[in-house]
Design goal:
The protein is α+β, with helices and mostly antiparallel strands. The chain is built from 4 helices and 10 strands; from the N terminus they run βαββαβββαβαβββ. The protein binds ligand 3AM. Belongs to the 2H phosphoesterase superfamily. ThpR family.
């Protein structure tokens, strides 16, 4: 199964992000149910490995914390704009949690993540959207801010590739004290 570790977004944050969707010709918006904040992409894992991952994640101790949305931006791949995202206000507890997850997974043999952690929620795939339209959208939404919401757990998700969109399934929640 294909796995990743993420924060399942609390409803007020999900609703706020859902309201941003629209008015950008060609954008493929993330369905509301799929909105999440990835902490660590894992990839394919067999049953035995999935159990080891679950075991390692279960041993992580951390406290709940609060998060707020902050700004929007674009990622590029091979010089081409590919995704539109909402940013997350700088958060030490979030960085600490991500660090603990990374350490735990590397300890059981997963290759280290080389990309620097950039907390974000992917809003849309935009590889076919015209650059000027993207720039206008970003300008209009760059001041995005939200109320802080409480994060009480993180989640191991499985991901099934669908025809149009992947289907994410929460496999295990790990409570933060
Ligand atoms: O949270 P975002 O949307 O940035 O793009 C995938 C998504 O990221 C990413 O993992 C998240 C949950 O699916 N992803 C998919 N395949 C990947 C890969 N091979 C990947 N990240 C790194 N390497």
């Amino acid at each position: 199964m294909r796995l990743f570790v993420a924060l399942d977004l609390p409803d007020p944050m999900r609703e706020r992000l859902t309201r941003l969707a629209g008015s950008l010709a060609g954008a493929r918006w993330t369905p509301p149910a799929n909105l999440h904040l990835t902490l660590r992409f894992i990839g394919e894992a067999d049953r035995v490995m999935a159990e080891e991952i679950d075991h390692a994640l279960s041993a992580i101790r951390g406290r709940g914390f609060k998060l707020a949305l902050c700004g929007t931006g674009l990622f590029t791949r091979s010089g081409k704009t590919c995704s539109l995202w909402a940013g997350i206000e700088a958060s030490e507890p979030l960085e600490r949690l991500q660090g603990k997850i990374e350490t735990a997974l590397v300890r059981i043999g997963l290759p280290p993540e080389r990309k620097r952690f950039k907390p974000h929620v992917t809003l849309a795939r935009v590889d076919t959207v015209a650059e000027p339209a993207l720039a206008t959208w970003i300008q209009a939404h760059n001041l995005l801010r939200s109320e802080s919401v409480a994060i009480t757990h993180f989640t191991l998700f499985s991901s099934l590739r669908g025809k149009e969109q992947a289907v994410y399934h929460p496999e295990v929640d790990y409570e933060l004290g």
